[in-house]
Amino acid sequence: MRVKNFSWFRLQDNLKNFSFVLPAILIFSIFYIYPFFDIFRLSFHEWNGITPSMKLVGLQNFQELMQDGVWWQAMWHAAYITLIALTFQNILAFALALACDREIRMKRFYRVVFFIPPVLSEVVVGLIWQWILYAGMQDGQHIGLLNYWLTKTGLPHLVHNWLSDPTTALTCIAVVHSWKGFGWGFIMLLAGLQTIDRQLYEAARVDGASSWRLFTNVTVPMMVPVMLVVVILTVLASMQVFVLVLSMVGQGLGYHTEVPVTRILSAMTGTNRFGYACAMGVNFGVILIMVSVAFKWLSNRMKQA
Amino acid sequence: MAVEPDEAGVKGGRSMMENNSYVVQRTIKGFLIHMFLIIFAVTCLFPLFWMLRSALMTNETVFTDKSFIPHTINFGNFAQAWTEGNFGIYFFNSLLYTTCVVIGIVLVSSLAAYSFSRLDFPGKNFFFYMFVAAMMIPLPGSFVPLYRLMTVLGLINTRIGYILCMINVGLSMSILLLKTFFDKMPSDLEDAARIDGCSRLGIWRHVALPLARPALAVIVIFNSLNVWNEYILATLLLNDRSLMPLQRGLMVFQGTHSVDYPLLMAGLTIAAIPIVVIYLAMQKHIVKGLSSGAIVG
Question: Which of B32, B53, B78 is the last residue of a domain?
Fold first, then answer.
């Protein structure tokens, strides 16, 4: 039977247990949950970030956003970077992982080296590549290494103002983004490949399967779950890229290299429209959630198939 | 073409001496696979090498001399970047922020994860899934309300404000990782300690934390990388040069000395070297963390 002060003891016990999570919950509530709801509230207001009062404008920010050509252009730019990352970066990562998934010398070396770009910051990566892609001339010689090499190797017609020409700047950013990112995919895909039971391969070989059949009928089906994780992570990371844009071209190219997060940033710090910046954030967040839900749905369909 | 010294040993396959077509075929295949891997390994390393090389040149030679090893090596850029370029202060700040944030995350998240895994209280699952949900929901632009909050709290342009924000950034992932680890860990030792009269806090400190060292290593390394490389919150929250970390300092430096490439490259080297060294020292944990992430996901 319960004694009378047992529940008092239990309350004390619960409180003690709860005190373990209290610091985490406090920090999380103040710095995550509160801003999370505040972004919705602010998105219905017009506020310059300085005055204590803000004006309630309802859905006006969202209506304006729907007609904001630059915003949707920025969205397409991010989609373009994502498309290059999904194809170029992920196919490269998978090819390298396949090449490493065997008894091969220097396997550890490759694994270590391919993950060096991902550990560098976007600022460092962006500034190094900006220096390599530099387009100026001095004493009749190209300063940037890429243009210098292009002239030296007999391809002077390919010399280009890589980062100041609007037609190539975005592609350069996407390629550098892929350079920085493929190591993630490589490590995750390699880990996935190594969990495939070797006996599956041997059984298929005994049955007379060719290497190509082995790849399409054993490797790929076994890898679908890991590939989908890599795809979703790539989409989320590439859509939200922006530090690389700032460090490679800054804001000097008009609207040609704008991506959603740089738009949010310039609405906030450039034109002091905090409410509008929040509306952009909400809009973009909803789009990202829809995209990742779509991929999840697709992955469930593929698993059933 | 750029050939790094460590690429000299292209000896993928067996010796060609055996006159066997199968062996020859395998050797060629191995050679091609190595060529493919080496090309991309060089692509990964070369920009870093070029950064280091440019940092060792002077402003006069850097624009015209394109040799891999510069004729005159000039270490002065590092000293100049360190003092005049303010990189000494930025470096100290980055070090301080990274240390404080990582210690904070380890303490706060291990306490919480231990409680979520081993102890019981009403609403436990609700709070745990709150942290998990935060990882799932992408919230671009959350820095706008965060900036407002920090202004209201008077934490803008303070070290403590930035540190608290960054602790929050790494919290969810660390709690999830540690809780999964604690769930798999047998609780025999903790039971023994409890029978011996050890308090909850004592068990956490003397039993659970030491046993969780592998998971803690993953948390420490990932959060260190994350804080060291963080840019956007540092830009919005810190305006004083004396408070800025390296990533922010680099962009400020680039904005004011846009043509002084050797100095900029020296600054980049100062920002990149510590992280590369830590990575090389701890890369086993990184691979482990990523692989487990891939399988959990």
Answer: B78
